[in-house]
């Protein structure tokens, strides 16, 4: 899979993309991530990417020309499954969306700044708008890093059994059951007996029951969705 990110702060990705699972996926050749500095697609000497809003009021808007140029160049090189814009009013990122994205071959993610991007970019180039939650970030970079992490860990071969993506929360419309490791007794706080019983069937039943109970308590909405 190939992911192209268009951003004015490529350095912001050095942390999230050079460690842990995403780093491992890159090393294994299972994902290639290219960071494109939007300012490289400007033509003036100040490498300007923002301008005043026609509507007036506070805040700048990301200009149409450099973004159009960046996207058009990438599109001339290969076909993209989606061209994503990170936006607080986009579709909320959820596990089914991440699952779908993880099957794609080529993806562009455009990171916004200021008051956002010129609406015409959204109308004419963007095929999918994604929000990572109902709050406003200063820029799309953190959102893009979250989207990429959620996708990359699902690519077959990226993670092994130790984190087993398929048993994570939301994969079956349930949150995960609680997990424990050694010691069995820490200050009198004990691991539930059932987990030490060795009875696989009962343990599976217990896990499912715990998942269901937690989902009802914490995320009842998951059970209501079709
Ligand atoms: N004026 C805009 C917010 C701009 S925030 C509004 O009220 O909708 C600047 C940029 O940060 C946005 O263009 C977007 O790319 C990114 N961003 C902010 N919050 C986000 C969120 N919850 N999810 C995804 N991207 C977000």
Instruction: Output the CATH homologous superfamily of the largest domain.
Output: SPOUT methyltransferase, trefoil knot domain
Can you count the helices? 8
Residue share in helices? 25-40%
Strand content: 15-25%
According to DSSP, the number of beta strands is 9
What overall form do the CA principal axes indicate? Answer: elongated
**Secondary structural class:** alpha/beta
Point out poorly predicted stretches: none
The profile of the biggest β sheet is: 5 strands, parallel
CATH overall fold name of the largest domain: Alpha/beta knot
What is the class of the largest domain in the CATH system? Alpha Beta
Strands of the widest sheet, in order across it, are 2-1-6-5-7
For the record, the CATH architecture of the largest domain stands as 3-Layer(aba) Sandwich
Q: What is the H/E order?
A: EHHEEEHEHEHEHEEHH
Please summarize what this structure is.
With 226 residues, this protein is α/β, with parallel strands linked by helices.
Explain this structure.
The chain has 226 residues and is of the alpha/beta class. It folds into two domains: 2-152, SPOUT methyltransferase, trefoil knot domain (Alpha/beta knot), CATH 3.40.1280; 169-224, Trp Operon Repressor, Chain A (Orthogonal Bundle), CATH 1.10.1270. Helix content is 33%, strand content 19%. The protein contains eight helices and nine strands. It has a five-stranded parallel β-sheet. Strands 3-4 form a two-stranded antiparallel sheet. The longest helix has 19 residues, at 200-218. It is elongated. It starts with a strand and ends with a helix. The model has no long low-confidence stretch (mean pLDDT 96). The structure holds S-adenosyl-L-homocysteine. Residues 86-89, 111-113, 115-116, 131-133, 135-137, 139-140, 143 line the site of S-adenosyl-L-homocysteine (SAH).
């Amino acid at each position: 899979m190939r992911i192209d990110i268009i951003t004015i702060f490529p350095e912001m990705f050095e942390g999230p993309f050079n460690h842990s699972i995403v780093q491992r996926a890159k090393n294994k050749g299972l994902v290639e991530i290219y960071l494109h500095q939007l300012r490289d697609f400007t033509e003036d000497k100040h490498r300007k990417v923002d301008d005043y809003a026609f509507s007036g009021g506070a805040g700048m808007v990301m200009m149409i020309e450099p973004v159009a140029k960046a996207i058009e160049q990438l599109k001339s090189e290969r076909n993209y499954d989606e061209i994503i814009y990170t936006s607080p009013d986009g579709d909320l990122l959820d596990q089914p969306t991440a699952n779908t994205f993880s099957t794609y071959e080529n993806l562009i993610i455009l990171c916004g700044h200021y008051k956002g991007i010129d609406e015409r970019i959204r109308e004419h180039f963007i095929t999918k708008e994604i929000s990572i939650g109902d709050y406003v970030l200063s820029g799309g970079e953190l959102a893009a890093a979250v989207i990429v992490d959620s996708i990359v860990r699902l690519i077959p071969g990226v993670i092994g059994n130790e984190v087993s993506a398929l048993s994570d929360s939301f994969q079956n419309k349930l949150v995960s059951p609680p997990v424990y490791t050694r010691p069995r007794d820490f200050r009198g706080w004990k691991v539930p007996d059932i987990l030490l019983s060795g009875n696989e069937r009962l343990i599976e039943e217990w896990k499912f029951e715990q998942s269901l109970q937690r989902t009802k308590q914490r995320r009842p909405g998951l059970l209501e969705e079709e």
